[in-house]
Amino acid sequence: MTAIDFAAIALALLLIRLARHAGMWIFALVALPGTALHEFSHFAVALVLGGAPSFPSLLPQRTDAGWRLGHVQFRAGHLRAMFVGLAPLLLAPLAWWWATTFFARAAWPLYALHAWIVAALLQACWPSKTDWKLAFPALAVLLPIALALAWYF
Predict the structure, then answer these.
(1) How much is the CA Rg of the chain, to the nearest whole Å?
(2) Are 27 and 19 in contact (CB under 8 A)?
């Protein structure tokens, strides 16, 4: 990856961010690749862990707090909910792989497409507030235990 590649990704991230001001439906379309993979990461992890997930919904819905671009419902205890809630973090390595695999060989129109896909993945890799709320109970117990074990050993 070159400095130009990083600049192209940063520009694509900025354009995705600015699309929020163009209206919810335009932003939803611009962010769709990242939103789809964000929700499918929840779906896949819930499925693997036996959480009986619903198929991801990708239609934007107005809520009391604003807009929700997508969602997945599942059943799981606190420990499984932590993994399902934090599943979008798996998109960060996917973004890195995509960038290092496709940028070097891409010519102009495809180069811009790859920059947009990597930016959408990076924008979507951070868990939402709801995701963190799902993950918090198990994290509150497991993190101090992990830190104590790391300090002890």
Answers:
(1) 17
(2) yes
Convert the pLDDT of each residue in 43-79 to its tens digit: 999 999 988 888 988 888 887 877 778 888 888 777 8
What Å distances lie between residue 111 and 23, 108, 118, 147, 149, CA to CA? 26, 5, 11, 42, 45
Instruction: Give Cα 77 distance to the centre of its chain.
Output: 22
Contacts with 68 (C-beta within 8 Å, 6 or more apart), sequence order:
60, 61, 62
- Around 61, how many Cα atoms within 13 Å sit in the side-chain half-sphere? 8
pLDDT tens profile 127-151: 988 888 888 888 788 888 888 888 8
Task: Give CA–CA dist 95/101, Å, rounded.
Answer: 10
pLDDT at site 88: 94
Specify the DSSP element, H or E, that contains 92. helix 91-102
Element at 63 (helix H, strand E): strand 61-63
Cα–Cα distance measured from residue 65 to residue 24, given in angstroms and rounded to the nearest whole number: 14
Q: What does the alpha-carbon distance between residue 63 and residue 83 come to, in Å, rounded to a whole number?
A: 25
Per-residue pLDDT tens for 3-23?
Answer: 888 999 999 999 988 988 888
Q: 152 φ, ψ to 5°?
A: -70, -45
